[in-house]
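Anyone? Bumping this.
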Amino acid sequence: MLIRPKEGILDPQGKAVERALPALGFEGIEHVHVGRLVELEAESPERLGELCEKLLANPLIEDYEIQTL
Amino acid sequence: MTVGTPKYRELGLTDSEYELIVEKLRREPNDVELAMFSLLWSEHCAYKHSRKLLGKLPTEGERVVMGPGENAGAVDVGNGYAVAFKVESHNHPSAVEPFQGAATGVGGIMRDVFAIGARPIAILDSLRFGELDSVRSRHLLDGAVRGIGHYGNSIGVATVGGEIYFEEPYEHNCLVNAMCIGFAKIEDMVRAAAAGPGNSIVLMGASTGRDGIGGASVLASAELGEGDEAKRPTVQIGDPFEESKLLECCLELLEKGLLVSLQDLGAAGLTSSAGEMASAGGVGIDIDVAAVPLREADMEPFEIMVSESQERMLAVVEPGRVEEVRAICEKWQTGSATIGAVTEGGQIRILRGDEVVGEMPVEALVDGCPLYDLEPEEPEGWIYGNRETLAAGASAADELLALLSAPSIASKRWAFEQYDSIVGSRTVRRPEQADAAVLQLPEAGNAIAVSIDGNGRRVACDPYRGTIDAVLECAQNLACVGAEPLGLTNCLNFGNPEKPAGAWQLDRAVSGLADACTALGVPVVGGNVSLYNEGPEGPIYPTPVVAMVGELPDPAQVAGNAFVGEGDAIGLVGPFEPNLAGSELAKQRGELGMGLPEPDIASVTKACETVRAAIRAGKLSSAHDVSDGGLAVALAECAIAAGIGCRVDLQHLRERGCSPEEALFGEGPGGFVVSGARATLEELGATLLGEVGGKEIEIAAGDRSLTLSLAEAEAAWRSLDLA
Amino acid sequence: MIWGVLQFPGSCDERDALHACEIHGDGARLVWHESRDLDGVDGVVVPGGFSYGDYLRAGAIARFSPAMEAVAEAAAGGAPVIGICNGFQVLCEAGLLPGALLRNAELRFRCHQVELVEEDTGERLSIPAKHGEGRYYAPEEMLDQMERSGQVAYRYADGHNSNGSLRDIAGVTNERGNVLGLMPHPEHAVDPLTGSTDGLRVFERMSKVGDFANHGLTKSPQA
């Protein structure tokens, strides 16, 4: 599951990373956001959405995406 | 690995050390045994170059409850209570990965304290880096401060003080020394000695992985050189949450009397804990590596024995009580496993299930390492170089600004605000509110004060006198809050002792430490040694970091270091003889060299008593020790903290024979800047300097007089910010 | 009046909260996170610290504890609940308070004395704040609603909002007003020896909340 800050919420971590890039020689990069990655093995994908909504993400401030590997 | 180099040499053992091992075992050691010996016989664990010197230190006193040799030292603070404390270094790991190096340094020293049954109540840290114009030093400073904050804050122990210095000799070898203070009922305290053949050995806490394998001998007993990037995998990762659970678990186990003894796992992991427990108890020990909970599936016996995975403790438990112990570990959600037993016969045996994979006499492993005599030789002059940063012909006001804004002197608020300094509700004086941290101990009916100091630059000028100065500074800081020293812990950070100059520095410094502590009547209750802090550029400044814990009867009678009211008189107490040798001004002028004046220990001690008594009686508004930057800086600091200026004349000081410059910026022990009623200061025999008032710092000093606005002084003093 | 101070693995300021309640003149005891009944207490303090290491998100795991289920019921019944710092985070994660706490705008943990303004009286309080994730956030419409229903309890005084909280919000209540959450630590402002005593006002305010004798906290949830 990829968990990222909701669009529009101030993301100082993302901003700090974005600001540091030119000094390191990386140009032309913008809209940096920093989120979280949770990896797990589940017997069935059924309740993963519920797991995200209830625990892994805070729906008020975060969006999530489930990827099957 | 170079072709043809014997394995033992790769692990840091010398030819003769290896031969001695073969002699003691009466055969060649196998891999498991070799790994274990290489770690316990490393400088970091065996203190082979310093052990003989440390014998000079005074360690006894009527308030000493636990002395050197135990996991931490402890002193009696009355009412059946003791305060435990110790300082330790984590220099080499921090140079490679500052966040985790500093964090695990804090974690490690805390475990030493709760291993003797004391609840950690405070942390202090002493940090040294290269100058801040180096990207590397900024990176190390930032990482170390964040790491200390991360660990201390998460586990809920207040970080109440410390020091941070910036000097070029630390550029390639930073110093991160962490101190922990704990509090316990004397009757609840426990020693490390294993006892009772047949008793079980229980490992508690986190599972064991490959953290820090080879850490002790690879990182701590060798100079850092090219390619230390490759050492990155051996840095340990700390988990303060795990330690918080482990701490509560251990304290509950001790409170319920379920443990025979307890030992933390630090450098050299299971090898050193099991070895030291057995050695202290004069018993043998069996460890079954197959029973150790592992984080990675395929670890070899030697890896399991030397892993430095954090947040683990080893306990000796009577077999009948093991289940109760495991139930409490379960309650606190921390791991536990029976991994061995205490035996008779003095052997340490490593088993894998039924198979013996390593065996040696405990005595050979723990105490068999040869101890070396140093071959000291005084170097020809100053070996450290000089860098001029202050323009010649600068005015006295400009010099004061240059000193106030020097990162070593400037306010460290940027750093200490990243630490929780109040959790636990004991903090009576927070960082920079007074010259020492003050913690109330309502259970014991009093309070303690702590200061950590160690001006390496002065020690470089004269290792003997400079170390005495460091001890005196510590005592003075305690006196400023009305505290009487009870005990001292130290961390000796030095270069390569096998080099004649390094040996000379270490030898002279330890003598200075011994003489100062003996003269002051303050026992050394524990400490740590970190050698080989040296790179291709040369050694660090010899840096004996000393920390004292003192007691004071009434936390409500503790002045701060800030002036209090307009019209208060300002005075100087003590046999202060300012001298520019080793001073911050000399550094900025590029004029550092060998030699320091002789300190007058007896007179400084008398001055400490005078100030201490006056503070306890509530007679003074403020008290501040004169140190880096001299009297002008001390006065400015008192004024800035108060937001009130001062008008001062150093004429009386100059009558002692010093030049205007020395009077302003000369350093040395024995100076206390105090403020209060004029009559009170006269009674104390203070040299009157002037009075508190206005919005400027006015210091008359002959042709070097200066006037600086408080605002400008504050801006300079608050200029340290890594944002 | 007896306060129950919850204790999670990783809580730090629970003993300080206990002590503060006692200084205020109330009884107090620690309540283990696994306790399903709050053991006869009249009000609850969810303390500061790093419950569960702040892993995943601050307060995200603690909110699922059995004790928190009991707290939710007690709160629904009108019992006073104070969430301090990490406690505030737990209450937001549990949905007992609106909004969420994000990382400080400066991206650094900061421990320092701050001035708060009590919203309904204008009284200024000097209280220490120590956190790395204290930036209060709620969507604009939610904030407007909260302002309308008087749910903003404390704001940072001018120049004292260093974490970037929206509308300088330092503390909020639920609609009913019996659940309060705030980031600064009133339990560390109750003793002149260690700082200011302005924190006592916060405990005073909440100890007056509702008719706590009738909250039925002495009964187990099933009864």
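Late reply, but here is one note on the structure posted above: The domain at 11-49+191-367 of chain B is CATH 3.90.650.10 (Phosphoribosyl-aminoimidazole Synthetase; Chain A, domain 2).
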